[in-house]
Design brief:
Number of helices: 3
Mean pLDDT: 92
Shape: globular
Number of strands: 4
Distance between the termini: 9 Å
Number of domains: 1
CATH topology: Alpha-Beta Plaits
Helix content: 25-40%
């Protein structure tokens, strides 16, 4: 399974709701696999979404989520990691 991971995408948000929306947008926009939605433990707070797929699909998912939410000011950061190291993949999966 590790060898099949071509890219990892991460979208970090300032709110729980924005993270859930970002995950939904990403999986609807591109053929990516959602592997984690990390939600904050307290009220509000930062959250992030991690997904995998082909590099182009992950870029599309990340960019779609970031673009859709940018005007709301809830995106903290986002990134695409092409060809991630196997140790990173093991930690995430």
């Amino acid at each position: 399974q590790v060898e099949q991971v071509k890219a990892i995408g991460v979208v970090e948000t300032f709110t729980l709701a924005a993270s859930i929306v970002a995950a939904d947008i990403a999986v609807k926009a591109a053929p990516v696999d959602l592997i984690e939605v990390r939600l904050p433990f307290a009220m509000g707070g930062k959250a992030f979404v991690v997904f995998t797929g082909e590099v182009s699909a992950v870029r599309s998912g990340v960019n779609s989520a970031a673009e859709a939410l940018k005007d709301e000011g809830v995106i903290d950061s986002f990134t695409v990691i092409p060809s991630p190291h196997k140790d990173l993949i093991h930690k995430l999966l």
